[in-house]
Amino acid sequence: SQQGEEDPQALSIQEGENATMNCSYKTSINNLQWYRQNSGRGLVHLILIRSNEREKHSGRLRVTLDTSKKSSSLLITASRAADTASYFCATESNAGNMLTFGGGTRLMVKP
Amino acid sequence: KAGVTQTPRYLIKTRGQQVTLSCSPISGHRSVSWYQQTPGQGLQFLFEYFSETQRNKGNFPGRFSGRQFSNSRSEMNVSTLELGDSALYLCASSLTGGVGGELFFGEGSRLTVL
Q1: What is the pLDDT of residues A30-62, one digit of tens each?
Q2: B35 CB-near residues (< 8 Å, 6+ apart)
Q3: Interface contact flag, A41 B45, Cβ < 8 Å
């Protein structure tokens, strides 16, 4: 079963705009990770935020984590057509060794 | 450094058959985990192996099994295939599989069951 829900399920924006995706989860976590998947391909790790962190940046990516609300958001600034992909959040518990994925957000960036 | 390699990339089977999928992790990575991705259920954890031992298993029937060899390569097997087993099967490797580690995914094996 999936740990959480992602919102929105699909997002269409113009190049240069910002894209925000949200993720909610149900149980306590050690960390939350975001992955990207191009159509039918493997997943690529984007960023990891630990449960004791509130915000993290990597290039054009900004991730926030609110453990009291069991939610996270991924912001992609100044989006590019090449950012078109599905984005998944995944949580890892203290037991480790496995990730529980959300349902994903399909992002389309129009040139 | 070569990435995670999965073979075959595509395969078609019929109900009742069995299938074996292979995964070669990144050199030096000792943890290999498997995930099933379907449109209906999304990404679901199957199992994780470290040093030839299964450390964790997802909620899948016994028809799904796996193993890891001494060189860290891993195989998963699905017996008595059902239509619902049609999916993209993704393998991921990491150095230790410990908490907080980044997973490196292969391109997947797309299984179609007719």
Answers
A1: 999 999 999 888 999 999 999 999 999 999 999
A2: A101, B43, B44, B45, B46, B89, B90, B91, B92
A3: no
DSSP letter assigned to residue B99: T
For A98, B25, B49, B94, B105, the CA distances from B30, given in Å and listed in that order, are 14, 8, 8, 7, 14
CB contact under 8 A, A44 and B43: no
- Chain centroid to Cα A1, Å, comes to 18
How far A17 CA sits from the closest chain B CA (Å)?
28
Q: Which two tokens stand for residue A42?
A: 């493997």
Task: List the single residue in B with minimal CA-CA distance to A99.
Answer: B45
Token pair 């078609």 in the structure block, residue: B12
Task: Please tell me whether residue B59 adopts helix, strand or coil conformation.
Answer: coil
* Tokens at A2, concatenated: 């999936």
| A6-30 pLDDT, tens digit each | 889 999 999 999 999 999 999 899 9
Residue that has been written with the tokens 């996270």 in this structure: A72
